Amino acid sequence: MPACGQPTGHYSADLFNYLLKTHMTQTNVSMFDIIAYVESKNNPHAMRFEPGVYDHLSAGGAMNVVALNNIVKLNRCSQATARTIYSTSWGATQIMGFNLYDGLYAGDVVSFCADPIAQAAAFDGFCRKANLIASVTDMASTPMLRFHFAKIYNGDPNAYAPLIVDALKHFGLQVTE
Fold first, then answer.
1. Cys-Cys with 154: which of 30, 57, 160, 161 at CB 3.0–4.6 Å?
2. Could you read off the pLDDT of 55-99 as tens digits, one per residue?
3. How many structural domains are present in the chain?
4. How far apart are CA 82 and CA 76, in angstroms?
5. Which H or E run includes 49?
6. In terms of residue numbers, what domain contains 129?
């Protein structure tokens, strides 16, 4: 694997397995699987531009300068392109550019989209950073946990929590509603 496609640190096949299947249920489903299904129907190449974030930056709004500088450096791009990357969510779990380049990944975004290990590591890193560590079983059995996860991960728990329920059911889990 090329160096630009690797997440920060060294990830063995065992760690990749851990990242993908942490807190497995009897159905071998991880939170990565659930959120990848919700966000992109498991498309590792998915990208979604968020014009509101971009407009906020363009109007001189607050930004994560470290993330923006990392985007310019690691993608070898202009500030305008960096603002677009910053304002777009990437990969199967749709990590926002401003989160991805705030210590979750140290390569270019094209390589990120082609690298499932990097995507699993970034998702795991984001969840740990945001204290969103929960098993799929707990997520299926605890509506308030789904609501909390949805609020932190997506911002709109009333719209996002039902999508988590749908994904849990898609993977055959019993859901307490």
1. 160
2. 999 898 889 999 999 999 999 999 999 999 999 999 999 999 999
3. 1
4. 9
5. strand 47-49
6. 3-170
Write out the two tokens for 153: 């991960």
Average pLDDT over residues 11-29: 55
Query: Residue 59 class from Cβ within 10 Å (0-12 exposed, 13-18 middle, 19+ buried)?
Result: exposed
Q: Rounded to an integer, what distance in angstroms lies between the CA atom of residue 34 and that of residue 131?
A: 17
In a domain, 177, yes or no: no
Length of the chain: 177
- Separation between Cα atoms, residue 62 and residue 105, nearest integer Å: 22
For residue 88, the cross-strand partners are 49
Q: What are 176's two structure tokens? A: 């307490």
Radius of gyration over every alpha carbon of the chain, rounded to an integer in angstroms: 16
Whether residue 21 is contained in a domain is answered as yes
Read off the pLDDT of each residue in 26-53 and give the average, rounded to a whole number: 91
Q: What is the model's pLDDT at position 29?
A: 86
Tokens representing residue 32 in the block:
């990565």
Cβ contact 171:29 at 8 Å: yes
- Per the CB < 8 A criterion, the answer to whether 117 and 7 are in contact is yes
